[in-house]
Amino acid sequence: MIEEVVSRVQRNCDISDATHGGHFTMCTYLMKMREYFRWEKGLAFTDRLPADELGEWLATREDYWESIEREEFAPIEIDGHAIDPFDSERVNEALRDHGLVYSAGLENCARPHFYLAELEREEQPVDGFSMRISGRELARGLNSPPAMLREETIFIRREALRRLLWERLETWRWNSPDNAMGRAFACYDIDSDVEAALYEMADSELLSVREHEIGEFLVGQEVGNTWNEMLLSLAGTPAELEARAVRDLAADCLRTLPAILSGEREKSLHFYVGNLGGMRKAIFPSMEERYRDWLRTDRIDGLQDLVEEGREHWLALTRKLCDLYSEGPAGASGRVSDLVKSSHL
After folding, report:
1. Which of 84, 107, 131, 137 fits as disulfide partner to 123, beta carbons 3.0 to 4.6 Å?
2. Cβ count near 31 (within 10 Å)
3. Using one digit for the tens of pLDDT, what is the confidence trace for 245-301?
4. Number of neighbouring beta carbons within 10 Å of residue 331
5. Secondary structure (DSSP) of 264-312
6. CA separation (Å) from 312 to 115, 117, 126, 139, 254?
């Protein structure tokens, strides 16, 4: 029965990839395909990828995607019951005795997302929601975010986190710049045993991932369902990325950064700044400025003050964005984008 569930979830992952896999930039797409190949073939991070086999696999996979891109997502059949693939709670209830965890939902640009993994443990860190932490992944798509918030449940993917760290390491190694990401990796014995180092780093960063998702949940309680309605209306626009970045930063200033700073977790601070890219970095330039001040002076108070300021700033901005959308959903994209652009910190 489990083999059939794995096969059905993987098929739904493949259908989503067939429709949305080409939405990445070429560089990102090729890197994700390399690591997807590594996962599917069960290769270690230290294994050299066979170029000829990889090339053949890539061509075959793209042909396969083309053949299924118009298929509908199939229900998950468990013990004779056909369950809607987006009904994560029903699927998880049916899989509870099998030690597995399942998640489905929409990512950026309303991209459908599914995964199935071995359940390591379940927690209830804050009243009102649960957290499920998974290990080895049995079915996944091209994109594998290490954490997701689905209604009142947080899913944390330990294996996906480790693979994300590996991708960051590979990118950094291209020219090994003296930056925050390099300082984060320097805290671990990467050169001697990269597999062990990535396990250690994933365990260390699990706290930051956990705190960010709790922050997302708490921010969600502040903004209500209007936020989700707004994101769906903005799907695929620059305004969607800007709005998501604002909520991410609100969650970080509410939970992630206070946890890092109060615990004097220098390696996690290096990684946070090194991983602060794209829209989040663009609208929060003060973060890197205060980080550099800390490197120079070894005084943490500047960062602590910024986090307090950021908590109020980004939470207030999430409310303003919701109010702006509620005033007139039609044409909200331009107004949301203008407000975010005028609200950098």
Report:
1. 131
2. 15
3. 999 999 999 999 999 998 778 999 999 999 998 899 999 999 999 999 999 998 999
4. 8
5. T-HHHHHHHHHT--HHHHHH-HHHHHHHHHHHHH---HHHHHHHHHHHH
6. 35, 37, 21, 39, 9
